[in-house]
Amino acid sequence: MEDSPQKEFYSLNNAEAQRTYVGVRRAKDWVGFFLPHLKPGFNLLDCGCGVGSITLDLAELVEPGQVIGIDMDEGQLEIARVNARERGLTNVSFEPGNVYELRFDSGTFDAVLAHTLLYHLSDPLRALKELRRVLKPGGIAAISDDDFDTVTISPDHPLVKRITNIWKNVVLFNGGSPFYSRNLRGLMLEAGFTRTEGFAVAAEQYGRLEETRRMANVMHHQMNDPALVNLVVSQGWATKEEMDEMLKWLHDWGERPDAFMAIMYCAALGWNE
């Protein structure tokens, strides 16, 4: 009997937090290193597309090429479909999919993207091999993920380290790799890509009131999610009272006139030549 598809856990599992967090992302800011390599007529696969904010920008760039976005969250996929209809895009579709076992034939796509997906996975190398499999000869893959060691929050406060450590612990507990992305070039070569290029992306930055307020809201929803609170408390990473203290600090931080936050993403391109 064949093994069932490998399952993974998306650590940012609060639905409202997901949509608020990723819904504003645009391709020019988050995957600008990828865009010069795309051409009209390209067929493109976006893995872990979420609500499709980046996917739809890519669909406009490669039109009349076909774009498929896959994700394991049907709720986010439905939002992506609605957004595609509102933008009048007919060359893009969204469907459930597992990056470890893509339904597509080998050599189907001119380009593939996995943005903020692989760090949730226990086996990024396996995912990269599968992405290379569905690429045409000469095709290009773009990968980008947070490096959790680059989280910067100001003003400094003892709770900042507690909060960031909780996030690292949650991702690690769920089988993810919060520091893997600095090694993307080597991993892509190991997966069989013939050459790679590496990039740093600094799109995630919060330095205006509306931005810090939005990020505080995202973190508040996630850290107040009962499943996460139960996990944190059961693992002894923090007490419920300490979590409540963190939530209050996050709210106050989001309203501060001097609040700032940034996270660097490590990214890479790989060619299937």
Question: What does this entry look like structurally?
Answer:
The structure is a single chain. The protein has 273 residues and is α/β, with parallel strands linked by helices. The protein has one domain: 3-Layer(aba) Sandwich (Rossmann fold), CATH 3.40.50.150. Helix content is 39%, strand content 22%. Strands 1, 2, 3, 4, 5, 6, 7 and 8 form an eight-stranded mixed beta sheet that branches. It is globular and about 55 Å long.
Offer a quick outline of the entry.
The protein has helices spanning 15-22, 27-30, 53-62, 74-86, 124-133, 158-173, 184-190, 209-223, 226-234, 240-254; strands at 44-47, 67-71, 92-96, 109-115, 135-146, 152-154, 195-206, 260-272. Strands 1, 2, 3, 4, 5, 6, 7 and 8 form an 8-stranded mixed sheet that branches. The protein has 273 residues and is α/β, with parallel strands linked by helices.
What brief labels describe this structure?
273 residues, alpha/beta, Rossmann fold, eight-stranded mixed β-sheet, 8 strands, 39% helix, globular, disordered N terminus
Number of continuous helical runs: 10
Helicity range: 25-40%
Please identify, by name, the CATH architecture. Answer: 3-Layer(aba) Sandwich
What is the gyration radius calculated from CA atoms?
19 Å
What is the name of the CATH topology? Rossmann fold
What's the SSE blueprint?
Layout (H helix, E strand, L loop, with lengths): L14 H8 L4 H4 L13 E4 L5 H10 L4 E5 L2 H13 L5 E5 L12 E7 L8 H10 L1 E12 L5 E3 L3 H16 L10 H7 L4 E12 L2 H15 L2 H9 L5 H15 L5 E13 L1
Parallel strand pairs: 1-2, 1-4, 2-3, 4-5
Antiparallel strand pairs: 5-8, 6-8, 7-8
Helix pairs in contact: 1-8, 8-10
